[in-house]
Prior knowledge:
Blueprint: H1 29-35, H2 39-49, H3 52-55
Amino acid sequence: MADQNWYAGDVKQPTLEVRFFKTDSGNEPVREWLRGLSATDKKTIGEDVKPCSSVGRSACRW
């Protein structure tokens, strides 16, 4: 029997469009802060934000 997960490597993960606040001088403080985090912290934040991609922005306002 063929491996039933043969397609898993070909599945592209959905991308969540994100817009960051930008100061008048062009800085994006939140993006800069995120870039400075460890890979583990970035993954944790990504997992927290992921549900917003399926339920919509209005349901995920903190």
